[in-house]
């Protein structure tokens, strides 16, 4: 990667933490975490690690992940994607509650179909998978041990087992490996072979402001490893950089022999470096080798502020994702095609409410990630036979909803933040927007949530994030219903490991989604 070429950061905007990457036949393939959302574990491809395209998901069928019963923050954590013996392998922790544990999926084509998955006998999180020249398969993880007496899990640092990839059975007892330089939560291990050395790269310091990437090397996949003299390889802790929480990386040798690291980071909005609306996103930095050690540059934001627009394909006419759904559509603990019916009305997605709202663990909601700092998320709904609206959610405790329908003659916005809720109401606008006025406003009601970021500057002493406006479209344009403090929908406040996701939902009856689009733009900032 040419040194002065500005890298496109974030490489994958919107909540996409824990990136892993491999290079096969001229394509880079990336996978990221998806937690309680389905389909699970998005897979991307790229020719150059600049333009990245979402090509599918690993978990598109029931039973591949135990997500339907996981608590918030559980589900598909950090994956590792590798290519070995002509097949793609992806290992991922399916965490908490009904999660299956560490699962190994395989596929011939990374766009799918992926296997049902084999549960590995490997107790820990963030599994890595690597092979030596004898074809022994090493699974390296952030290990746990079950205390038989107390039933508690104890952290063991970085551990490793060898496994049988067909059965998932461990072929050896866990051994403990180099576990970093003393930071908390040694995790995210990845093994690499380069020249005469094996490298063990990990994350430590926790996934918040203390996050970092550190590295060690040794003569075999099991070490013994000794740490690099210049650790940490990457960290933003104690800095005023625009990208914070940098850590959890994966190294890749590029087509031209140069190296890069993909890693997670956040774009917090306040001068206190807190409140990231999109949670943890995927970034990329160039890596150079000196005396057998890799050196990475700090993560910098590029200066692209191009407007972005994504019109969700509701009709299945454009390149179809899983089951003909736009691949960007996700749902909470269910597949979008379990929540929405694409066949009921041409060009629309039909949601049927079960009498619950966005506070539910599996709401009748489909959404897309917020991917730029400035956002306009807009939908048009037919609410004549039901009640529902548009929501921007972080988790079931934290969401901004705009709702209409039923017998109500109003449009109500409500902001929910744990035990606090506040709501505002306006009368339904007189006429439908684009529709036939005789059908009334509920035939095609346009709702919009706008995120207006505060500008972060060196001398800008605000502890803010953005303002969220809830709007409904009337005959003369958008009408403000409420404007609320976006900090309550940010990573420092909410429970999940995710970021903001917005889209339509049904509370009761039938709600037809006639349009859903996201527009946005990142903002200028004094600090890169
Ligand atoms: C992941 C751990 C982490 O498993 O957060 O940043 C956890 N790192 O490595 C969930 O993403």
From TrEMBL:
Q: One Pfam family of this protein, by short name?
A: GH43_C2
Q: Where is this site: Important for catalytic activity, responsible for pKa modulation of the active site Glu and correct orientation of both the proton donor and substrate?
A: 126
Q: Which GO terms describe its molecular function?
A: xylan 1,4-beta-xylosidase activity
- Where along the chain is the active site annotated? 18 (proton acceptor), 187 (proton donor)
Q: Does the keyword rRNA-binding apply?
A: no
The Beta-xylosidase C-terminal Concanavalin A-like domain covers 339-506
Q: Name one GO biological process term.
A: carbohydrate metabolic process
EC number, UniProt record = 3.2.1.37
**Which family is this protein grouped under?**
Belongs to the glycosyl hydrolase 43 family.
Protein's UniProt name:
Beta-xylosidase
């Amino acid at each position: 990667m040419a040194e002065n070429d500005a890298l496109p950061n974030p490489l994958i905007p919107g909540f996409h933490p824990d990136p892993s990457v491999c290079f096969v036949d001229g394509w880079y393939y990336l996978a990221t975490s998806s937690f309680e959302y389905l389909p699970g574990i998005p897979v991307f491809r790229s020719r150059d690690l600049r333009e990245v395209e979402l090509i599918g998901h690993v978990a598109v069928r029931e039973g591949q992940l135990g997500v339907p019963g996981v608590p918030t923050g559980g589900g598909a954590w950090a994956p590792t994607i590798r290519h070995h013996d002509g097949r793609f392998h992806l290992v991922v922790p399916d965490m908490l509650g009904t999660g299956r544990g560490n699962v190994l999926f395989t596929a011939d084509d990374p766009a799918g179909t992926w296997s049902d998955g084999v549960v590995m006998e490997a107790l820990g999180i963030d599994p890595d998978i690597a092979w030596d020249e004898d074809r022994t398969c090493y699974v390296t993880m952030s290990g746990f041990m079950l205390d038989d007496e107390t039933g508690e899990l104890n952290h063991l640092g970085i551990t490793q087992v060898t496994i049988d990839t067909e059965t998932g059975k461990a072929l050896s007892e866990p051994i403990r490996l180099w576990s970093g330089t003393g930071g908390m939560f040694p995790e995210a291990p990845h093994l690499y072979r380069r020249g005469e050395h094996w490298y063990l790269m990990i994350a430590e310091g926790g996934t918040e402001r203390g996050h970092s990437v550190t590295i060690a090397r040794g003569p075999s996949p099991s070490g013994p490893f000794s740490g690099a003299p210049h650790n940490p390889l990457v960290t933003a802790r104690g800095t005023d950089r625009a990208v914070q929480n940098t850590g959890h990386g994966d190294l890749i040798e590029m087509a031209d022999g140069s190296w890069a690291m993909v890693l997670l980071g956040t774009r917090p909005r306040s001068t206190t470096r807190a409140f990231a609306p999109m949670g943890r996103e995927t970034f990329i930095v160039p890596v150079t080798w000196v005396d057998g050690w890799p050196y990475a540059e700090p993560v910098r934001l590029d200066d692209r502020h191009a407007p972005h627009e994504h019109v969700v394909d509701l009709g299945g006419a454009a390149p179809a994702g899983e089951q003909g759904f736009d691949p960007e559509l996700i749902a909470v603990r269910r597949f979008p095609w379990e929540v929405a019916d694409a066949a009921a009305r041409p060009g629309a997605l039909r949601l049927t409410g079960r009498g619950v709202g966005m506070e539910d663990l599996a709401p009748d909601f489909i959404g897309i990630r917020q991917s730029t700092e400035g956002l306009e998320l807009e939908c048009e709904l037919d609410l004549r036979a039901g009640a529902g609206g548009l929501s921007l959610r972080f988790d079931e405790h934290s969401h901004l909803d705009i709702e209409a329908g039923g017998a109500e003659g109003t449009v109500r916005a409500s902001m929910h933040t744990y035990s606090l809720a506040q709501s505002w109401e306006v009368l339904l606008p007189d006429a439908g927007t684009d529709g036939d006025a005789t059908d009334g406003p509920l035939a095609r009601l346009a709702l919009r949530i706008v995120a207006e970021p505060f500008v972060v500057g060196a001398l800008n002493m605000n502890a803010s994030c953005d303002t969220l406006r809830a709007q409904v479209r009337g005959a003369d344009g958008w009408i403000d219903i409420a404007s609320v403090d976006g900090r309550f929908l940010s990573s420092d406040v909410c429970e999940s490991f995710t970021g903001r996701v917005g889209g339509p939902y049904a509370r009761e009856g039938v709600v037809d989604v006639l349009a859903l689009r996201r527009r946005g733009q990142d903002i200028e900032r004094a600090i890169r």
